[in-house]
From TrEMBL:
The gene is Emb. The chain crosses the membrane at residues 190-210. This is EMB protein. Signal peptide: none annotated. Pfam families: Ig_3 (PF13927), V-set_CD47 (PF08204). Keywords: Disulfide bond, Membrane, Signal, Transmembrane, Transmembrane helix. Residues 1-78, 84-182 form the Ig-like domain. One of its GO terms (cellular component) is neuronal cell body. It comes from Certhia brachydactyla (short-toed tree-creeper). One of its GO terms (molecular function) is axon guidance receptor activity. One of its GO terms (biological process) is synapse organization.
Length: 228
């Protein structure tokens, strides 16, 4: 099985074609085209290739189209028609109070518009509604690259952010997770280690003091026995 992703930013005509290699052992296969689980018919055929022609006018026509070739064995190829993906960031952004966080979204096609959201519980709030020049800044570096900057971070800025690119067929989104730590956070492991060492040293000192006291007390008892 083979799979291919095809990015479509606007309505267009598309031809999807499956072609067998001339040296393939699969002779005279039975060919079926499917859109998802629905069987559709191919519109053109040559000796070793089968194609369908599509007019993609809205998002309902996006999705997976598969050609299945059956003979002595079965092979297939799937075409995923989708709006362009946004290149975002999979791992959380970890930073500290007072710093600046930067989030960048990039896509291969130029969207009609960009929108940034901040998640407030289960609701997405457009940042343009809460935009303050001293807190948020949105920069359009180019037609297909957009950037969000958040200044003077506090723990309250932690959360999930989204960037959305609007295309004619459908919008594409990317998710960012921001974690803002206190300035003391990097020192917590060091403080814990210092505390453990201090406890250990105190225990050793107390043990040595107690041992010396016992040793002195034992000598006095011995002297008293000698005198008796």
């Amino acid at each position: 099985s083979e799979e291919k992703n095809i990015s479509l930013a606007s309505p267009t005509k598309v031809e999807l074609r499956c072609k067998l290699d001339e040296n393939s052992n699969l002779k005279n296969p039975q060919v079926t085209w499917k859109r998802g689980s629905e069987t559709i018919s191919h519109t053109s055929k040559t000796k070793n290739s089968w194609a369908i022609q599509l007019t993609i006018s809205d998002r309902s026509q996006l999705g997976s189209y598969t050609c299945i070739l059956k003979g002595e064995k079965e092979i297939s190829a799937t075409f995923n028609l989708q709006v362009p993906n946004i290149e975002g960031r999979e791992k959380p952004i970890i930073t500290y109070e007072g710093d600046t966080a930067v989030m960048v979204c990039k896509t291969e096609h130029d969207p009609k518009a960009w929108t940034w959201y901040m998640t407030n519980g289960t609701e997405k709030v457009p940042i343009t509604k809460i935009l303050h020049a001293d807190k948020f800044q949105i920069k359009r570096q180019s037609a297909n690259v957009n950037r969000l900057e958040i200044f003077k971070l506090t723990k309250g800025d932690s959360g999930v952010y989204w960037c959305e690119a609007a295309f004619d067929l459908e919008s594409s989104k990317s998710r960012f997770e921001l974690k803002v730590l206190s300035i003391a956070a990097p020192f917590k492991p060091f403080i814990a280690i210092v505390a453990e060492v201090a406890i250990l040293v105190t225990t050793i000192v107390l043990y040595e003091v107690c041992s010396k006291r016992k040793g002195k007390g034992g000598g006095k008892e011995f002297d008293q026995i000698e005198q008796l």
